[in-house]
Design brief:
This protein is an alpha+beta fold. Helices cover about 25% and strands about 30% of the residues. The chain folds into two domains: about 1-115, no CATH class; about 135-350, Fumarylacetoacetate hydrolase, domain 2 (Alpha-Beta Complex). It has helices spanning about 30-40, 45-55, 90-105, 120-135, 150-155, 235-240, 285-300; strands at about 5-10, 15-20, 135-145, 155-165, 165-170, 175-180, 185-195, 215-225, 245-255, 265-270, 275-280, 310-315, 320, 330-335, 335-345. Strands 3, 4, 5, 7, 8, 9, 12 and 13 form an eight-stranded mixed beta sheet that branches. Strands 6-15-14-10-11 form a five-stranded mixed beta sheet, with no helix packed on it.
Length: about 350
Amino acid sequence: MTRLTVFFDTPASAATSLIVGCLPLLFRVRGAIYFISLLAKIRSVNRALSIVAGDRNNINSPAPIFLPLTPVSYIGQQERVTDNMQADGDFDAIAHILLAARAGKVALDDYPGVIPQSMAEAYAIQDKAIALDGRRIGGWKVGRIAPHLVDQYGDTRLTGPIFADEIVDASDGQVPEMPVYVPGFAAAEAEILLCFGAMDARDYDIKSVRDVIVDVRAGLEIASSPFAAINTHGPAVTASDYGNNKGLVLGPRIPDWRNADLIRMPVELAIDGVRLHQATMETMLDGPFGSALFLIRTLRKRGIAIPPGTWVSAGAITGIHEIAPGQRADALFDGHLRVSCAARRFGAAA
């Protein structure tokens, strides 16, 4: 196995050894130049890497990352692998860099490797990152795949984890500050949030899935990634980086939700008091319960359990609205249920 050893100068230690393999960017000169420039951009991430790969309690005692090196082709932004499926080591490399960029709050100008060509590849990368991350998952975001890409990717929706420490209950009307990546991508989305209770092994359908929902709320998803162009390279790229999620704001409960007409409930979203859009869930495929059903089926295929208390953010109702630090987002459901948050730069004092 071939390895590349790179040393970074840091104030914490004389040098931190980062051993990286399997990056497909190394097999052509152009790819090597890209890789070197990427390493330069993540110099400040070495402390984050020490947490990801080494002792999480001692960021000055990192462990090296060992990844297998496998031959693939690199042809710029339209990368393609030589085989039908990327090698497992490729997923490791991409997951390490995506996670390190998030932990180190470092922007990525380009996707850090071969662009995944299927949802299976995207979820393989996501699974690697989740395992490396180590935090408890408190929910999952579900987003819609653009209709013209459904045949290519074989699904109508995608999903990504929402970590428990990034879920905030604002049902009492508070306006929490939610961190976003700057530079990077950041947006607020008005969404219906469903909470799972206990479920069994049966095959649920659009009607019976309601039986395992114990709470429904108005909410805001915070979509943010260090990769500013995350939404311009297709749903597999979006899914590979935690589905472009950076948090969830739980708003007020929707009363009598079992009998409420959620599909036709009007929802509007404003940024700094300016209403940007109003819509209903009538255009959201089979609605929020369809999102819950999709999540159950998708996670079962991946071997991931859904414990009671898990939230599902069912999809953007009014659209994806970019937000900057210092701005406030307000979502209004059914004319009287309001949930709000403010954006702040990740790493800045709350």
